[in-house]
Design a protein that fits this description.
The chain is α/β, with parallel strands linked by helices and 701 residues long. The protein is built from 27 helices and 21 strands. Helices cover 42% and strands 17% of the residues. Helix 21 links the parallel strand 20 and strand 21. The chain binds adenosine-5'-diphosphate and magnesium ion.
Amino acid sequence: MTKFLDTPIEYLKGVGPVRGEALRTEASIKTFGDLLFDYPFRYVDRTTFQKIRGAKEGDTVQLVGQFISTEEARYKRSGRFSAIFQDESGWIEVIWFQSVKWVKANLKLHTPYLLYGKIGRYSSRLNIAHPELELFAEVSPEKLARLVPVYSTTEFLMTKGLDARGRRKLMEALISQFQPEHVPENLPLYLINKLRFMSRYDTLRAIHLPGDDVERQRAEDRLKFEEFFFSQLLLLAARNHRKLQIPGIPFVQVGEKFHQFYKEKLPFALTEAQKRVVKEIRQDVGSGHQMNRLLQGDVGSGKTIVALMCMLIAIDNGYQCCLMAPTEILAQQHYTAIHNYINDLHLRVAFLSGSVTGSERMSILRGLHNGSIHMIIGTHALLEDTVQYHKLGLAITDEQHRFGVEQRARLWAKTEGIPPHILVMTATPIPRTLAMTLYGDLDVSVIDELPPGRKPIVTSNRSEAHRPQVNTFMEKQIAEGRQVFVIFPLIEESEKLDLENLQAGYEKLRIRFPPPQYQISVVHGRMKTDDKDYEMQRFIQKKTQIMVATTVIEVGVDIPNATVMVIENAERFGLSQLHQLRGRVGRGGSQSYCILMHSYKLSKEAKERLQTMVKTNDGFEIAEADLRLRGPGDLTGTRQSGALDLRLASLTRDHKILTAARNIAQRILEDDPGLKKEINRPLLKYLSESSTLSKEWHRVG
Ligand code: ADP
Ligand code: MG
């Protein structure tokens, strides 16, 4: 940052201490630089005007006219204020609800104004509330001929005279002092030429005061590119750094156990995608550098077997391995599945969770420490200090969105010297754009193919009116020997109500599906682990036909005989959660069904969510829709890159720019890993001088 950009905001003409304080607290604008990088959120085309006559409700209009009277009495008690605005075609009422005092004191009658606002309606009268106003005499002719920026503001800022127009005035003051040397070029010249960008100075000027729409677009293109480019540069540099600097245990051979398993034990042929991923991982772990790989695969795509094969490679090379799952049930299930797969390979596999205690626990801890246990599967109990390995070579975490980054880091710290290889498995498909920005420093493998013979789940969308048909359908499936999940939402904020709701739903089901013919399991998050497991087991052993549950079963549980998933209040679930839940059925060979029960009144967004579920089974398509509907904030929650600050760019709309930025960053780093070449000097300078980026750069550069 240059001195100019660091200047405290109150030194700007028109700001001073009071407005300065307001800008600092309300808009986080502390310096000239903060103001400069606070871009308009839209632009108004001031080249065309409208007439009052002919304006319709909902129109955004720009009018020239005068106020001919005020009508204070009309709203006296409500604290509102109104005035009549007239042009040569007619008149319209203008209303203020806020800053009334200020408007009353400053509004001039019989003086031409330029008015910009939106036509609304109150009972039968059209009106305009809180328009932007400018004395026509003060509007420069040049301004009338271009796009006018609109900045976001708040009620409080408005009381300080910083409405949209006030904010614009500040920007004009800033731009009048703004010089090219205040913003040194941060992109190399060859890149600017190649991408046909304007200079950084021209770009920043143009984003605030564009001459025309073409110029605005060019400025926006460059700024969006920069937003992605510098974060990609950092992420890729981090990845390169790790690859070059951090040694990994070389697993030089694919040995006996792996081959024995592959040839004799594997109960099915691997899908092409599984083969590809195993190969990618083999290359990683054989390279002598630490593997840090994210394995993405939709629910049911067969990640467990891939994890197992990787663990066998570790064991073949004389190392131990661990697999950590977020819940007891899931960990147990992994343990059982893996145990069955490899039961006569003569390996010692153990299970560890909070519920493993006493001498059993002691014996496991000892076995891990002296190396006699090859493979440990468990919950976050694996992170405890008492868990010490003889030689840990590979750490796998499943369903990673439940673990934080730090927790993963703690797995690394389990060994002195060379860290273990890391494989992170997630069943939450992350859209490509998001993966690139959030996990850009990890290598990514994708299983994009389901095992053969799976029938796509048939999903439907039903309201309470269809309850009898839904029950009849369940009855038929149960008669065919199938099992049914009925899922109720449960969130902390409305936990009590939600539990009552679940209880009520359970009672109704018991009346419709009475014992002894029908048995129903209930599992929810407030139950003791033992009780939960007991109920779970009854369902797994087919002693019950229906399982009423909250989302605790969302992750991982594999019950191939369950073919119907009924989700109550489906509108309350997010898309990726619905997809996860649906993934609990359709795991055997039979046709499976997902029924989304919803209330009568649905928001537009909820409707779209449910329709997306009905339309597609593809987790990536669903993830894209989720990103579009919700924005990226909620999707991951576990990881924020400090360098990613998207002001203009959007992960959904601008994926082309993102891809280009990533490719270019990659090529530059391949050619010049430390950005030491003269031509890349602007990059290095920018990265090492920026307050937010320099820390990350120093870590990896
Ligand atoms: P997820 O990716 O959701 O963890 P799993 O690893 O649990 O999926 O696999 C889901 C089911 O598919 C399991 O029952 C597993 O045995 C089966 N499966 C995995 N790979 C294959 C394959 N290549 N062919 C047939 N079935 C497979
Ligand atoms: Mg799984």
